[in-house]
Specification:
Elements: E1 3-4, H1 7-29, E2 34-40, H2 44-60, E3 63-69, H3 75-87, E4 93-96, H4 106-112, H5 124-132, H6 140-151, E5 160-164, H7 171-180, E6 184-188, H8 195-200, E7 204-207, E8 225-228, E9 232-233, E10 239-240, H9 245-248, E11 254-255, H10 262-284
Parallel strand pairs: 1-11, 2-3, 2-4, 5-6, 5-7, 7-8, 8-11
Antiparallel strand pairs: 9-10
The structure holds NADP nicotinamide-adenine-dinucleotide phosphate.
Length: 285
């Protein structure tokens, strides 16, 4: 039976460390890290994400600035708000909650955020830096996954790593982080010819497809570290991952649950990026 990787506990430990670092930063420099979160529209899931981010900010001692705009907000109004936030010294990180309403171009919005305040690491400048390994910000979900792998004591170097899913926000940066850690990385996607064969070779398997329970026990190598990024609904509407936890946990060495695995780490890494952005402003002065 696999060891369960407790994302909640690991996330709590990371946030406790950030809380202590923040208190020290404030007492030494007077700078309080600030995160601005912008929500356009009233998507229920996005509202919950924004609420959780605000709560996490308060818990670690950050300032949080929340902007809720109506769904019909013109793109130019959102761009003007981002421009103001880019110049606001109390704001060190800017996060525009995705997805945006259809009339707003996501790419234009992402590119309007100053790369120095881009705590999601979605701006092309930061994406490029991730490619070269010379990064200021790590994308939150893949960075959280790396922490979870580290918590198992598994050394990535030299390991066969398989990432299923190639999105810009999870799969691609995930593969780069594993590569920077000297893993031998294979990326799989919907056109991969023999997914089972590829997955069976993985010492470390990271799955981010959005397909409920698609990875089954017969696709996993005995003792593998299995990280499930998916946040899906099963046939009964219950939250589940991309990995069939019940069967795979009998084969894997380590496995993340859903919920309580990758999700809590994503927020912890967002706090880490905001703290780093605030600290960097001191170095720039
Ligand atoms: P996405 O943009 O929809 O990308 C899904 C990827 O999976 C695509 O690359 C797709 O391949 C691949 N894929 C789909 N079906 C496949 C199949 N049958 N076999 C192999 N590959 C397949 O999704 P995403 O944004 O990366 O998110 C993935 C999941 O992670 C979702 O459940 C999302 O909710 C979750 N998520 C969780 C967090 C968190 O904090 N826990 C954060 C972000 C995302 P193609 O490119 O060929 O289409």
């Amino acid at each position: 039976m696999a060891n369960i990787i407790d994302g909640k506990a690991i996330s709590a430990a990371v946030r406790e460390r950030i809380k202590n670092d923040t208190a020290r930063l404030i007492s030494r420099s007077g700078v309080t890290p600030g995160l601005a979160v912008v929500l356009v529209g009233d998507d229920p899931a996005s509202k919950i994400y924004v609420r959780n981010k605000k709560k996490a900010c308060e818990e670690v001692g950050f300032k949080s600035f929340e902007y809720v705009l109506p769904a019909e907000t013109p793109e130019i109004v959102l761009l003007e708000l981002i421009d103001t936030l880019n110049r606001e010294p109390d704001v060190h990180g800017i996060l525009v909650q995705l997805p945006l309403p259809e009339h707003i171009d996501e790419k234009t919005v992402i590119e309007a955020i100053s790369p120095k305040k881009d705590v999601d690491a979605f701006h092309p400048v930061n994406v490029g830096k991730i490619m070269t390994g010379d990064y200021d910000f790590l994308p939150c979900t893949p960075a959280g996954v790396m922490e979870l792998i580290k918590s198992t004591g598994t050394e990535v170097s030299g390991k066969k790593c398989v990432v299923v899913g190639r999105s810009n926000i999870v799969g691609k940066p995930m593969a780069m982080l594993l590569l920077h850690a000297n893993g031998t990385v294979t990326m799989c996607h919907s056109r991969t010819k023999d997914l089972k064969k590829e997955c069976l070779e993985a010492d470390i398997l990271v799955v981010a497809t959005g397909r409920a329970k698609m990875i089954t026990a017969d696709m996993v190598k005995e003792g593998a570290v299995v990280i499930d990024v998916g946040m899906d609904r099963d046939e009964n509407g219950k939250l589940c991952g991309d990995v069939d936890f019940k069967s795979v946990s009998k084969v894997a060495g380590y496995i993340t649950p859903v919920p309580g695995g990758v999700g809590p780490m994503t927020i912890a890494m967002l706090m880490q990026n905001t703290y780093n952005a605030a600290k960097k402003t001191l170095m720039a002065n």
